[in-house]
Amino acid sequence: MSPPSPPKPDRHARLASAPPAEPASDDAPLASASLLGRHQAAALAATAVDFLVMIACVEGLRVAAPTAAFGGALAGGAFNFLLSRTWAFARRHGGSFGSQARRYALVCAGGAIVNAALMALVLRAAAIPYPLARVFAAVAASVFYTYPLHTRFVFRVRA
Questions:
Q1: Looking at residue 141, what DSSP letter applies?
Q2: What is the C-alpha to C-alpha distance for residues 134 and 157, in angstroms, rounded to an integer?
Q3: Residue of 108, 94, 102 lying closest to 155 (CA atoms)
Q4: Where are the beta strands (DSSP E) in 7-131?
Q5: What is the pLDDT of residues 24-48, one digit of tens each?
Q6: What is the number of alpha carbons within 13 Å of residue 97 lying toward its C-beta?
Q7: DSSP reduced 3-state for 79
Q8: DSSP line for 41-73
Q9: For the chain, counts of helices (H) and of strands (E)
Q10: pLDDT tens across 85-136, in order?
Q11: What pLDDT band is residue 159 in, cutting at 50, 70 and 90?
């Protein structure tokens, strides 16, 4: 008989040994330089996925640009969730994968709608190429919708 293996540390013990989380206060500033920088880097990588899907849908499948923007936003969102959870917000949260994925799905679906609507508005207001319209929509959605919701809702610090 072999000796029993040592017990695995429970989830709370693992969290206690993790790097310190950022402040849990709802009053914490959204503009933490390091957090905002990591969020923007993850968003840039996800945007590359988003745009590749959108352009492939418009040019290859002949899908309308706002519809393709919706699909691209969803693909980019899935990529962004994984990168944000494992890198951008990794030191900030203690939430489970499932709970964060559910909250992220809500934010991502809303973001896809916001992006498509903003893109449609920009295309109606200006005669510019759809990728440029998508840039304007993506920047506005990231700054005013996605970042605040990721920080305060999806990857919030558990009290």
A1: H
A2: 32
A3: 94
A4: none
A5: 444 445 667 788 788 889 989 998 9
A6: 4
A7: helix
A8: HHHHHHHHHHHHHHHIIIIIH---HHHHHHHHH
A9: 7, 0
A10: 999 988 777 788 999 999 999 998 898 899 899 999 999 999 999 889 988 9
A11: low
